[in-house]
Amino acid sequence: VFVFSSTVSFASTGDGMPKESSPFINNTDHDKGNLYDGKNMALFEEEMDSNPMVSSLLNKLANYTNLTQGVKEHEEADDEEGPARSKKPVKSPALGTLIGVYLPCLQNILGVILFLRLTWIVGTAGIMESLAIVVMTCSCTMLTAISMSAIATNGVVPAGGSYYMISRSLGPEFGGAVGLCFYLGTTFAGSMYILGTIEILLTYIVPSAAIFKAEKKEDEPEALLNNMRVYGTCCLTLMSLVVFVGVKYVNKLALVFLACVILSILAIYAGVIKTAFEPPDFPICLLGNRTLQNHNFDQCLKTMKVGNVTVTTKLWSLFCDSPDFNATCNEYFTLNNVTVIQGIPGLTSGVIRDNIWGDYGPKGMLVENKHQMSEPAADTSQDIYMPYVANDITTFFTLLVGIYFPSVTGIMAGSNRSGDLRDAQKSIPIGTIMAIATTTFIYISSVILFGACIEGVVLRDKFGDSVKGNLVIGILAWPSPWVIVIGSFFSCCGAGLQSLTGAPRLLQAIARDGIVPFLQVFGHGKANGEPTWALLLTGGICEIGILIASLDAVAPILSMFFLMCYLFVNLACALQTLLCTPNWRPRFKFYHWALSFLGASLCVSLMFISSWYYALVAMLIAGCIYKYIEYRGAEKEWGDGIRGLSLNAARYALIRLEEAPPHTKNWRPQMLVLLNLESDHTVKHPRLLSFCTQLKAGKGLTIVGSVLQDQSNFQRASSMATERTKGFCHVVASSNLRDGFSHLIQTAGLGGMKHNTVLMAWPGTWKQSNDPVSWKNFIETVRETTAANQALLVAKNVDSFPTNTDRLGEGTIDVWWIVHDGGLLMLLPFLLRQHKVWRKCKMRIFTVANMDDNSIQMKKDLQMFLYHLRLDAEVEVVEMHDSDISAFTYEKTLVMEQRSQMLKQMQLSRTEREREIQSITDTSRSSIRRKNQTGASGSESDPSRQLEGTQEDEVAQLIHDRNTASHAALNDKPDTGPDRVHMTWTKDKFLSERNRNRSEVNMGVRDLFNMKPNQSNVRRMHTAVKLNEVVVNRSQGAHLVLLNMPGPPKNRSGDENYMEFLEVLLEGLNRVLLVRGGGREVITIYS
């Protein structure tokens, strides 16, 4: 006997409570501490991770749950009260691969279709086609599981499972669309499980409980559907109440439901093995080769001997009008004998050869044994009233795919609960893929074994009418059919409860993300977080499926939604893999983008194979949700793959655009809008953005550029949103507007996505402003665009342009085509008329003919040119005769030049002005300081003080005479102190300087009145005056006038005259757009 003695030490935990420590137990590892007790199992200490204690395994089984994470915590939080809730220690995740992933996936995958429809699918489609269905669907889920494993191991997946994975991988739009599809699929799955529960209850357990009973055979399907609706609604209400009261009750029954599934599977395999040496006795009665429903007769005989008397049987009464031998009977009944065959011949019977291929048919087609001899009857009209087994629906291969697919869903059970797992990144891939492999084996083996054991007519008997109303898969099971009936009943109940538990939480996760605004109310619930409102909506949608009442009609609906979800899981994985996102580092390494694309292709194929119209409806629903989220502007940034895809696509497109310049056919104005800002950084001319939107109609590139002369923030995006302008913002910080606009024109855009057109406003107040900077900036911008070979649009009176909400009535857009510079003048009205603001306006084109031009021929040629350009416009040729230059033009030119000359003489440059002000101010102040330092008494008669006063007056007078800065500038100048060297001013020097400057000014004024205007300027002014008269005469009432913009003078000394010419040209016109081409053709007659 070995006695172990150990010291038990107590250490303070910080709250005054002692904590026990033991040398045998590493107390930092709570999971290990829970696996064994104290030192009694120290011998097995090193094996505890791989081989847990039996007690630990049993404890986990007792706590088994198939609910999504968060559900159990909500219930526990609801049980806790007050401060005790906060004191509850946080449990570390302790579920392994078996309990946490494998068994929940197994329970979700195996379900109602296996028990109620798989035998019918095998009988209808045959073994080969059934195997094809199983392989296709299981391959789809296996490939999806591989993609899902990669995503699930690329970080923690919270509650929401597949929705969380898709939304964080593909963005809020796809996430919301697919998340809602997955929610609808889960909800309709609840309907399917409830319908399966009621079908088992009313068909196999208590048929007498039916409320609606059919008096005639042809009324039986309708009566069954009505019973399903009534009982299904009651069952849904009951299950919803259970979920509302507390899912902890569902949680307590989870192990029971799991045990039912596993025991049922084992009973089926046991029954198959038993048929090899002792097949069960389930006789099938055939009339000719037709299968009979044996509900209402015991013996498969027409007549039988009772004692020495031959009497008719119950079967006779079903086909004849009386039990007498001379009764009138059905023709087919008379011509054919009854035969008894075994429903389950067994594995060694060779029946597998008869079940290799399928037997599809229309609704009402009788289930017949093709190998049995029969005599056909001439009249078959009464067959529907006879107790034959017949198809209740039209069967074909694609329908069976849609009905079968829900039996392979449920692969998300592990990823939905990743937060409860000890090692999610290891457990999810292994558990999910093993569960799919297990269920695939079960389905493939079941298809082969069912076809090898059960007679074909029994397999095609959906509701077991030929075997006295027994469940077909039940008659195969050992030891009793009731094992399968009861097991499948509880399995369907559990699956329905789990759907009603999981679907509201999925909807709550979507609602709390806030990407679908009208769903936000469903994000609220009880105090403990239970989604009450989401449960109500789920119950309502579930009721829709129950009112459909047919399991075969509901199954394809939820197949669509699950396939849509799996499609996007595969796309998400493929996208992340191909984009090589830096954050894409999944622990699961056995994935490839080709597998993901194959899975996605398989999902799309199965959708359209199952039901093309359901597939289109599901895609339409997902598309509408996607566009709704996009329209409402999902402002979520989750680092999704779609954003990475957009970046890669943009890079690829930019590189392609860079390879060659755009063809004339592809040319469209790519706009750079130059905005001036007010002092408070608001946009000066917001209608410029409206006009840009109308011109672009959302197509092409729009860059909104502004210049900030300080480093403050500018909220330009709000201005763009107000004017509905779609484009990019580019703000430059610069010390002056001139340099800022130059930077924008040269650097805005990237690669092939650079602007080719500049849009700006006409400086309307340039004449009223004493500062020439505004019009000089304007002219330099014109020169910049010309040098960059970019088109220029200048909008005059832009504040009177229509907004995007205005609708202009009947009117015209007048184009004055003076010179041809690429055809932009004719393209712009066409683009404007695409927008609803200008849609009702007609286009008119005016061109100017000189004396030696043939105006009639010009008009014909222009009309033909517009015809080839496919432009609808009225054409008019305006003749401008050579005339003498009027005195008005001469005088206007003279006044313009005099004004320009006067400004040049009377305005010093800014640098000279500041230097002279500084010099005079500093000299005056220095003299005053020196006089004060001599100790003068300050009397008014002191000659030095009088000289200072005189000097100050003369300084002010000199500043006024020389048109320098205001007196405020004098006061604002900093005092530089007496240390600087200044010239010494005396009264005589100052007076002589003033007189000299005055004489210079007077000489300049005399020259102004004696000057003569430049002849070149006179000619330009004459053109502006005459052209303005013509334009005003023809187009004053037009909604918009487009004019060729003459270029600026090459000699910069004539810049101000250029502004005068443009001002005269535009005088009297309201909305004008001056257009200057970029030096290339932008419109073509060729296709």
Mean pLDDT figure:
78
Extract low-pLDDT stretches.
1-38, 81-90, 934-983
- Oligomeric form of this entry? single chain
Total beta strands: 17
Q: What class would the helix/strand composition place it in?
A: alpha/beta
How big is the Rg?
Answer: 46 Å
Q: β content, as a range? A: 5-15%
* DSSP helix fraction: 40-55%
Distance between the termini: 103 Å
Strand order within the widest beta sheet:
10-9-8-11-12-17-16-13-14-15
Tally of separate helices? 36
Could you give the topology of this structure?
Blueprint: E1 9-12, E2 18-21, H1 30-35, H2 54-62, H3 71-79, H4 84-87, H5 97-109, H6 112-116, H7 118-152, H8 162-170, H9 172-205, H10 220-245, H11 248-275, E3 283-287, E4 290-291, E5 303-306, E6 309-312, H12 314-319, H13 331-335, E7 338-342, H14 397-404, H15 424-453, H16 456-459, H17 472-476, H18 481-513, H19 532-548, H20 551-579, H21 593-610, H22 612-632, H23 641-659, E8 671-675, H24 687-696, E9 702-708, H25 716-722, E10 728-733, H26 737-747, E11 757-761, H27 773-787, E12 791-796, E13 811-817, H28 824-832, E14 841-849, H29 855-868, E15 874-879, H30 887-906, H31 910-933, H32 943-961, H33 967-972, H34 987-1010, H35 1015-1035, E16 1040-1044, H36 1055-1066, E17 1072-1076
Helix pairs in contact: 5-15, 7-14, 7-15, 7-20, 7-21, 8-9, 8-20, 9-10, 9-18, 9-19, 9-20, 9-22, 10-18, 10-19, 11-18, 14-20, 14-21, 18-19, 20-21, 20-22, 20-23, 21-22, 26-27, 30-34, 30-35, 31-32, 32-34, 35-36
Membrane topology: Multi-pass membrane protein
Subcellular location: Cell membrane
Transmembrane segments: 95-118, 130-153, 174-195, 228-247, 254-273, 393-413, 433-459, 471-497, 533-551, 557-578, 590-615
